[in-house]
Haloacid dehalogenase type II (Cyclobacterium jeungdonense), 228 residues
Amino acid sequence: MKSKASLLEKPQLLIFDVNETLLDLSPVKSRVNELRGDAHAFKEWFSLLLHYSCVESLTGNYREFGSIGKATLKMVFQEYQKDIQEKEIEEVLGLMGTLPAHKEVPEALELFRHAGYTLVALSNGSLDLVQKQLDHAGLSPFFERIFSVDVTGKYKPDPATYKHVLDQMQIQANKGMLLAAHAWDILGAQRVGMQTAFVSRPGKVLYPEAPLPEYSGNSLVQIAVQME
């Protein structure tokens, strides 16, 4: 679906979220659900992980994403009086570094690059992890730069993190676009004046109280075709 994009200047810089937007979290989802014996365990954990990353930022603190992931994974099991072993936690976190790309992603990134856009990646994960993830998935060559919240110590959707990327790339906010599968990430980028594109992966929906993104589609290829 295309909304108001035709009224705006074509963006120059495309900023891609990583987990779920580019990379498929299914291997992690399956393992967490298996370990707790509950089809909803992964969703609860990932929501809690995002929740406490925001808590850390709001209270002026910073802990590495993997550390918060470990702590919140324990919480999700403790809530149901279930045990999770340290080696199982390390297994789950290790899977984060070996995620596959969603099938259409390489084609989409090539379309974006061919259309003349500058591509960068931005993740709440540590820079080492994000680099490992994109290398493993074969996506690193598509990106001019890879960014992490490590530098700002502020997790998305904190404005400081988006602004840092824009400043580093020397791009005005309205000429930058965030592409993400998370409504909270889309809203964060909108609040600093960026354009946005929403990838409606299965189970992902927009926040009704936020403005519509400039573009949306069921896959990155759909969005790339609209933006050619």
